Amino acid sequence: MAIMFQRIIPARIQLGVLFIAFCFQILTASGAQKVEALPEGSGALINHSLMLVQRLEALLAHGNSSDVALRVQTLHSDEVKVFQAHSLVLSLQSEVFEGLLQHRNASGLILRETADCATVFDKFIRYLYCGEITVLLEQAIPLHKLASKYRVSALQEGLSHYMTQHLASDSPQGHVVSWYDYAMHIGDVGLRDSCLQYLSWNLSSVFQSGEWRAVSDDLLLSLLQRSDLILQSELELFGALESWIGHNQPGGTTIESALRSVRYAMIPPGQLFRLQKQSPVLLKYHESVRDLLFMAFQFHSASPLQFAKYFDVNCSLFTPRNYLSPAWGSPWLINNPTRDDRSTSFQTQLGPSSHDSAKKIMWNALFSPRWLPVSLRPVYTAEHGAMQAVRAEEGRPRIIVTPATSSVDFAGVSFQKTVIVAARQQGKVVVRHVFNFHQSTEESGDFLAQADLQRRDSEYLIEGAMHLHIVIKSIYHSLIKAKK
């Protein structure tokens, strides 16, 4: 009867009961306990959790009462690591281990791992016993591989979160590109998008690092298609692309696709002439981009309104990215931003066309740390004869960017305003947020809505100051279509 009952109970429930008994034996043997007082009448909490973790770690370290030996063989190597483990713990933490242990024919298990996974296998096993792990940047991927292989979902999620939070960390060879490639391989959309956004928003610094050379063909083409890249200029992008091509020597199809993704109309004509004569890549692949270069020169030689009558300007060739050079905007450092409202003025070109680049627009920017919508502002009531606050909210940060004057030259041009917020992460200054709003709106409705600017150590401040960069992107559009 007992045997029949044992068969009916699921294996994992049996293991759970055994584990409870196992832990009870450990704790009673230790004799130590932590007593926490609870509200009167509800008793006291006796907490042995830390002692339990320590005892489990000691079991793994010394191999006491071990009933299974894990032999970890490194692929393409004679190296073997042996871990004296416990079936009970392994089965509770991993369905894969549970299945392997149920079908084993000996007292041990042979596990074959790649070199990088074998190196960190001791950390992985320790996590199964203790529920904690210390991770270095270069260990994130092999540990995630092990967590995925043995279906330890909590560790998988923890490592994915770790990677998204440590994109800005310094490493000798860089790590964001390899994490992006890994995320693409395993289908982790969240990690993939986080890596792609980090690279897009910090592209100038990526150009200066050794990581730029490690960018794959697919990642390169994905980056070149984006309009949210943050960099000094399109000319900087072309120089970095030329360097990447020289180092990686990709196939001709990749080179042509990459060169056709450059927005030549955003490069001044004088610099375009120089590139045509001096760039080895353009000299070799000139025929592949001849039409784009011709279109760019036409764009710079005619007035935008005249050009837009005959050509479609609503394409990527004529769409600026987030350029940090002075012609496109201005940095804005706001010390002690919660003190009071601040304002600044700056000047940009009307547009990237040679016809407009000499024409200047003055812009005014206003930052308010505690702006209240009309519905929340104090109102006067006759009943009380005084200003009565409808609600007690302290307001939220607000930024407004407006042109100081209007002009007939604005015809055919709209302006996208971008506010870039820098912050310090893992000791490095990186772009933390990007807010976009268009000509029809003067402000970004959700600007730093969740930010706590009151604390000097706020993650949105650098040494008590807020670092912004305002970019004005001129977008041309057609007013009149010419008859063909």
Structure notes:
- The protein has 19 helices and 16 strands.
- Helices cover 40% and strands 22% of the residues.
- It starts with a helix and ends in an 8-residue tail after the last strand.
- Strand 11 and strand 12 (386-388) form a beta hairpin.
- It has helices at residues 2-8, 11-30, 49-62, 87-93, 95-102, 115-119, 121-130, 140-149, 153-165, 176-186, 189-201, 203-207, 217-224, 234-248, 252-259, 269-278, 280-284, 286-301, 304-310; strands spanning 34-37, 44-47, 68-74, 80-85, 108-113, 230-231, 322-323, 329-335, 342-349, 360-371, 379-381, 386-388, 396-403, 413-425, 428-437, 465-476.
Oligomeric grouping of the chains: single chain
> By helix and strand content, what is the structural category?
alpha+beta
Largest sheet: 4 strands, antiparallel
* Termini separation: 93 Å
Radius of gyration equals 31 Å
Short description:
The chain has 484 residues and is of the alpha+beta class. The protein is built from 19 helices and 16 strands. The protein is flat and about 85 Å long.
